[in-house]
Amino acid sequence: MAQIVFGLGALGLMLVLLVVCLTGWTWVYFRVSRGEAILQQESGETISWGLIDIVALIVTVAVLIGMFQVGGLIATGAKFPINPDTLTTNQRASMIMAFAAAELLTVLAIAKLISLRGFGLQLFGKRGEQFSSDLLLGCMAFGMLVVPTLILQTILALLQPYEHELINMLIKDRSVPMAFASVAAAVFAAPLFEEFAFRGLLQGWLQDMWDGRLSTASVFVGRIRRYWQAEPLPELVAATATSAESAEVASSFADSSDNPFDSPQSEVIVASAVSDEALPIERSPAQLYGPILISAALFALMHLGQGLAPIPLFFLALGLGYLYQRTRRLTPCVVVHFLLNGQSMALLMIQVFVVGDDAALIAN
Predict the structure, then answer these.
(1) What global pTM score does this model have?
(2) Distance, CA of 364 to chain centre
(3) 275 near 233, Cβ under 8 Å?
(4) At CA 337, angle to CA 333 and CA 340, rounded to 5?
């Protein structure tokens, strides 16, 4: 009974995602027919993280995955050395949940590491003011990307069968715990972690480095806000004060004697960079396409071993990279990734629990 209910729920989700897809193409059609750009270029503040944060993310997720999976296997009574063929349903589900938990905790840990240096992530907009519009934008972008992605996946699957360990485990063990763990990992944890890592940290870092918005030190360790200094860091101010208006703002940090609200006893909080949110960004072709291509290529390479999946995933990542570059926010990208993985997982659930066909469908 539980399997039937789960399958019907997946079928309902598919219908919802189909409506979202049609809405997205309709939105694109009306914008293009009016002669409007699909997406306007936005500007934003200089990033506050550096190469050290990207390395920390890789190390943290690897360590946590190992720790959580070993802990989960011990808690479920597994005997070492592990034989994958003898694992029980709960043991398989615990390994998948450990992977998902490690990804989510890594995102929280790296976000905290960055915020401890005095800056927010700036990845989801200021105080969530654009959250609602970003949700809608993500749904529309999903409508634009899902159809070509699925068409390309279908064609390539005819040339070489798609392989994914998560799909193989679920087909082999058709149980509710496995289904729950698979949805948690593929639909919720993976989109947030992968967009945070590839579009946010990596592409955001590459973009600002390529645009010359980071000082040499900031490229490696990120920006640091020093609360105890009455003077701004000159090299960091110079790296971001790219206009007369920005220079004037930077000067106001250095000389606060004319500020009627300042007092000798007050603690001076100095920003190590000036917001250039309103400044236009003019990029060369290398600056425009380089960060997107690199992050998309690495994203595709991460999926090696899954047949020809890296090819459609590369083109999907190009679209996600363009979306992040235009908005400088992760919410639309996470929504696209969530809906795409949700649609793929819903197809798989229908196939496993309703149709019963063993042919693998794609869940990125």
Answers:
(1) 0.78
(2) 14
(3) no
(4) 140
